[in-house]
Amino acid sequence: MKIAIDGPAGAGKSTIAKALAKKIGFIYVDTGAMYRAIGLFVMDNGLDMKNEEALRAALNQVTLDIGYADGVQQVYLNGENVTSRIRTEEAGSMASKVSAILVVREKLVELQQELGRRSDVVMDGRDIGTVVLPDAELKVYFTASSRVRAERRYRELLEKGVVDTTIDEVEADIIARDYRDMNREHSPLRQAEDAILLDSSEMGIDEVLQAMMNLVAEKNPEVLKIK
Ligand code: DC
What we know:
Layout: E1 2-6, H1 13-24, E2 27-30, H2 31-44, H3 52-60, E3 64-69, E4 72-77, E5 80-81, H4 89-98, H5 102-118, E6 121-125, H6 128-132, E7 138-143, H7 146-159, H8 167-183, E8 196-199, H9 205-219, H10 221-226
Parallel strand pairs: 1-6, 1-7, 2-6, 7-8
Antiparallel strand pairs: 3-4, 4-5
2'-deoxycytidine-5'-monophosphate binds next to α2, α4 and α8.
């Protein structure tokens, strides 16, 4: 079974996808992490994002591997484990920029589809239901107001010890990222026609997780029986 979760930044996709995958024994694939790793590569090597040919040549030299340690996805960029380095706001913003480039998307979609063929997956991103896994049995589009998403991100940043920002700044960044992700030419973020809309503005994690479990049970009760 394939489960596709899409939605804007900070809507809670990865928290829920990770917990759901664990509960039903599926592999969790975080596709945003792959775009973040490529963003890091472009940043580290000072590549010109406007030069598609040079970028294509450089990307051909990149090896991106996904592994799992205690069920947690690890991302290897040219052999280096970049799982923590990709988690900064800067890497997120860079990811949003490189993800608009067609050659980058082609490379990553191929890898994501291969992971989907290998096992039962819960995959989250922006184009999973529309492009990567159009035949997924369950598609959910997560959303929440930009203020609620900013509050969640801000709390996470404070927990990490980052205090040199305000909620308003975080919200402005989220709105800019939404705009870029929804208005790019290639595979813009949008709800697939057969995706279920889930607005978590007024819901807690446990409630969203339960709603997802109910959807899985509706689509494929076998999954819950076996686990
Ligand atoms: O989910 P995230 O914040 O880690 O994603 C980082 C960026 O990567 C996001 O702004 C848009 C891009 N992305 C994408 O274009 N397609 C995906 N399937 C996943 C992420």
